[in-house]
Amino acid sequence: MNYPFPDMQQGQTLVFWSLPIAVLHVFHYSNKAVWKPPQPVRGGIPICFPQFANFGTLEQHGFARNRLWTLDEDPSPLPAVNSQSNADLLLKSTEEDLKTWPFRFELRIRITVSAGKLTLIPRVRNVDNKAFTFTLALRNYFSVSDVSEVRIEGLETLDYLDNTLKRERYTEQSRCINFLMASTPTKIAIIDHERKRTIVLRKEGMVDAVLWNPWDKKAKAIPDLGDEDYNTMLCLDAAAVENPINIKPCEEWRGRQELSIVSLSYFSGQLDLHKVINGLR
């Protein structure tokens, strides 16, 4: 469902507003979110492109997340799947964008909704006459019962870069939630016992993951985030950051993110991780 702004042109939309209400309960939206462009909305799934965070010279997380997108009336063909609803969104470089990032591109997002599953397929096409490099992340703001109680499966013992400590490399050895970036498996799970559900993220083409929560002190310093919002949110991003992607003229890069909900299941009092990670019911 789309919620257009009064000054939007026909056919324009915000990428993270194209999700049906049935899946919105999975995502967190700040109670202080600003719903007026060019301010990015604090919640949902902002698209970080062509730069993630401050890994470059552009504005934080690049400019794609605070642009107005259009419906792609003639999308490139992708395999059709029965019982699914699709929406194809398109963002093209503008003359204003070229002043800060001098490369012409087309960024497409296919949003596919099916029973218990939400899939996003980002595609970046180089329509310039020179190669360019970019980083990209799908910033998933998930709603959780209590951020201090949820458990993350799939990131154990992996190296990560701590942005709060000058991006020094560490190895994850605890359940503490930090800002981190690491080369990760294709499947990661957020286990929320209180809500009796597990959010499973599967990804392709985006080898990194970013786990972020501002905690209490930083939350109070973020204008569009409620002071207590950090308690019930967790960002887990599918990302391509540590090794930026390079594409030549006329080439296209493609990624994929699939989100699904799995009910918690137990065996002898222990969580059955095989069912959680593999999406078995």
From TrEMBL:
Which terms are listed as keywords in the entry? Isomerase
Q: Which SUPFAM superfamilies match?
A: Galactose mutarotase-like
Q: What class of enzyme is it?
A: isomerase
Q: Matching Pfam families, A to Z?
A: Aldose_epim
CDD domains (alphabetical):
D-hex-6-P-epi_like (cd09020)
Q: Which reaction does it catalyse?
A: alpha-D-glucose 6-phosphate = beta-D-glucose 6-phosphate
Q: What is its EC number?
A: 5.1.3.15
Stored InterPro entries: Aldose_1/G6P_1-epimerase, G6P_1-epimerase, Gal_mutarotase_sf_dom, GH-type_carb-bd
Name the protein family: Belongs to the glucose-6-phosphate 1-epimerase family.
Kindly provide the name given to this protein in its UniProt entry. glucose-6-phosphate 1-epimerase
Provide the species name. Tanacetum coccineum
